[in-house]
Amino acid sequence: MRGMSSSSCYEQEVPMKYVLTAAQMQQCDANTMGKFKMPSAVLMERAALAAVGVIEERFPVPGARVLLACGTGNNGGDGLAMARLLFLKGYSVRILFPGNEEKCSAEAERQLSIVREYGIPVVKQYPEGTFDVIVDALFGIGLCREIGGVYRQMIERMNGADAWKLAVDIASGISADNGAVMGIAFRADRTATFGFAKIGQLLPPGAAYTGELRLEDIGIDCYSLCGFQPEVRMPETSDLSLLPPRQDDSNKGTYGKVLIFAGSYNMAGAAAFSAKAAYRAGAGLVKVATDASNRTIIQNLVPEAVLATWDERTDTDRFAEEQIAWADAVIIGPGIGRSRRAQELVMSVLERAKVPCLVDADGLNILAENMDWIDTGRGNLVLTPHPGEMARLCKMSVAEIKKDLLAVAEAFSSRYNVVVALKDARTVTAAPCGRAYINTTGNHGMATGGSGDVLSGVIGALLARAVPAEDAAALGVMIHGMAGNAAAGTVGKTSMTASDIIDGLCAVLR
Fold first, then answer.
1. Please, what's the b/e burial string for 1-14 (b: 16 or more CB within 10 A of its CB; e: otherwise)?
2. Fewer CB within 10 Å: C terminus or N terminus of the chain?
């Protein structure tokens, strides 16, 4: 099992929703039935009722044609119970049951005998005809092998059918632990999952097969953890309450000073995006330290920013030391290039800065060649790589990075005692203490130049406001994604720019 701590979530309120592995969820099931004496049949009936409610919401008028593909385990039992409930509500129901009945779990066997007593059709082969709804209840979270043979053919038929598709608990073929596709997977429009979200439902490629994820209450909750706190979590909008409130009796110094080392010769865009985002995210003061050639551009693009510049005569170490003395948080990397000056700045910042620091973009590429610059004892360093940058940091291929984003981020964070926000379609943030966060906000419109610079500014502002590095990274990523969603509502995803994401911050933080 992925690490769990020993404090109880029903003894103290725990922010952010837990996200579980298959083993952790199976333990929750066992605890609910063992410690709390909840009968398995009751849990199955509640799961079936919840999933039927999802279908009723989409097809409120009885009569819709529903095909339920059911396996021999308890996931199949959920599907069989759904078939009975839908049948009694007047839906046209057919059950596809390809498995060996002798291998049924006790609950699946009981549910199969019930539907037969009601006379609901049960077939072994994929039926001809069309259906309005296809329900996947073939395999649950315990699947640990690739799907082949008749089940593969069946899922291919289900995926190719012109019908609305619902997965029960998890889309068959998706690893609950990392989102991998095990040979083939059911591609759902919606997934009704029970108790807690599973890691594989949030990470790619599993997220694409999950569709819209609906978390349904069936009686498995934090009590079922019996004192354990899973270390993977999913930030939500309500978690913005963790941010320090603004006060009437305050001034610009109250909300922190962000120093941004960014931009190279005649390259000011990244610096401007990061600085604007830091202000929009609530920083009291933002200083841009950049090449002298960018002075006029920065003054025009971000007139609110304090400015410090270097030229060929500047002593890099002395310049960096003077600027760092001013700051509550430091960002280094956006657009600085990989010149000797840039390398000296990165080294100087990592050596001298005692305040929280964030390294991004070119700073990460420089760091990848000088990993000994990381002081593993500092504990307040945040790195924000995309998979390509992470590959260089880890000396791995991008394919290896993307195969298990969470595991890679966790291992790197633990090894170097840094907070890592590994940016992808589903950004994962890992902290040295073992906690990790999977972000579910944002959209593909944010795949645009400057978006990462905006994120660095947001996280930098939170760091300057004394938000702990772990929370600043996890919440900053969520806020950034929310801003992207707000921008999509205004300009659409195709036309979105980094400037639109900055504007979206206003809507989110209003």
1. ebebeeeebeeeeb
2. C
- Of 57, 136, 465, give the one whose Cα is nearest residue 284: 465
Neighbours of 392 (CB within 10 A): 17
* Residue-wise pLDDT tens digits, 317-351: 999 999 999 999 999 999 999 999 999 999 999 99
Q: Is pLDDT at 66 greater than 50 in this prediction?
A: yes
Report which DSSP code applies to 267.
B
- What's the first-to-final CA gap in the chain, in angstroms? 40
* Phi, psi at 9, each rounded to 5°: -80, -10
Q: Are 32 and 74 in contact (CB under 8 A)?
A: no
CA distance readout (Å), 80 to 75, 131, 344, 360 = 9, 17, 65, 51
> What angle is formed at CA 441 by the lines to CA 439 and CA 445, rounded to 5 degrees?
125
Residue 15: pLDDT band by 50, 70, 90 thresholds?
A: low
**What CA dihedral angle connects 3, 215, 154 and 183, to 10 degrees?**
-30
CB of 453 within 8 A of CB of 290? no
Which of 461, 465, 367 is CA-nearest to residue 420? 367
Name the CA dihedral angle for 452, 453, 459, 462, rounded to a multiple of 10 degrees. -150
DSSP lists the bridge partners of residue 65 as 92
**Distances from the Cα of 283 to the Cα of 246, 300, 399, 468, angstroms:** 11, 19, 37, 15
- Report the alpha-carbon distance of residue 224 to residue 29 in Å, rounded: 7
385 CB contacts (<8 Å, ≥6 apart)?
360, 364, 393, 420, 421, 422, 423
CB atoms within 10 A of CB 311: 10
In 3D, which of 333, 385, 324 has the Cα closest to residue 356?
A: 324
Q: How far apart are CA 336 and CA 328, in angstroms?
A: 21
pLDDT tens figures, 445-489: 999 999 999 999 999 999 999 999 999 999 999 999 999 999 999
pLDDT for res 324: 98
Express each pLDDT in 129-151 by its tens digit: 999 999 999 999 999 899 999 99
- Return the residue matching tokens 């080392």: 261
- For 432-510, where are the E strands, in sequence order? 436-438
User: Could you tell me the two tokens for 418?
Assistant: 């840094």
